[in-house]
Amino acid sequence: MLYEKFDYILAIAEEQNLTRAAQKLYISQPTLTMYLNRLEESLGVRLFDRKKNPVTLTAAGKYYVEKMQEIVDAEQILKGELYSIRDPDQLFRIGIARVRGHYWLPPLLRSLTERHPRLNIVVSLASEKQLQRQLEKRTLDLAIGTLAAIGKSEVPLIMEELAYEKVLMVAHRKYGIVPEKERENNSPVNPWIADPSVLQSLPFITPPPTSGMYQMVQKLLGQYDIRPSRNIVVDMQNTGLLMAEEGLGVKLISADVLAAIPTEERRRKLDFFVLPDMPEARVCSAAWREDTQALPLIRESIAILKEEILPLQLYTEVAAETTGEDL
Questions:
Q1: Cis? peptide before 54, omega within 30° of 0
Q2: pLDDT, tens digit (0-9, with 9 covering 90-100), for 6-44
Q3: Do residues 140 and 94 touch, judged by C-beta distance below 8 A?
Q4: Which long-range contacts (CB under 8 A, 24 or more apart) does 262-270 make?
Q5: Which of 124, 236, 264, 314 is the most exposed place for a label (fewest CB within 10 A)?
Q6: CA 62 to chain centre
């Protein structure tokens, strides 16, 4: 009764008159009045104040309409979701960290859909820790990210290295990390090797613990005993890079994210540097459940990435072919 003929209630609320609402619904006014009486009796509240002209919703009526609209919307979403998974063999669920998703997903999905025109795809853009949890809960078929940095999984996962991504640090030139005379040749491919002491007491922009970059940042801070004056935690590398451009702090980044800022603007505002013995790259991997039914699509996706997409990334080296190992 609550959900049945909800359009009747919407018509009354819109027309603010039972006769006009009945005409709009192509039913008689007594039929509409009888329906409203029965509904209000079953709910135990008055939905409309019918003593006034025009007829208006009561407080309970407004709340009823609001909640019923949520139910209608949820039903439509559910129908769409059920439609998308009506054929499990034609559904592929892929999760990827946000920055890579921005640059890697469009060409990957274009290739997949060209090969499999009827394939339904569900995409999840999330942190590495969230992707791992989704794999464990079977809500993903394939996850892509720096998953090795997260730690062992609670369920058996297979992991294969995809690429080695160049990492470096950036900071606004106002901090003077790169000497002025060295800035002419300073670039992401030619970063300055900075003395860790110059970072002491500078503000930092760091990722949250769920990010694959988190452990690397914390290890560097501990290794060189760097104590930031302030810390801004942000889970989007693109946003963190723009914050660095605004002079808000030092940022460790995957070099691929530099595509978010035009080259000349980067060179004018940012210093690019690394620290002694700092890792030059981090490993991006693909991971999936050992018992997955989507292995052919997973293998196909990995091949597309390694052969068509990763070779075009400026600061990424494609990993050698491997058979995958337990995570």
A1: yes
A2: 889 988 999 999 999 999 888 999 999 999 999 999 999
A3: yes
A4: 266/188, 267/186, 267/187, 269/172, 269/173, 269/245, 270/170, 270/171, 270/172, 270/173, 270/244, 270/245
A5: 264
A6: 34
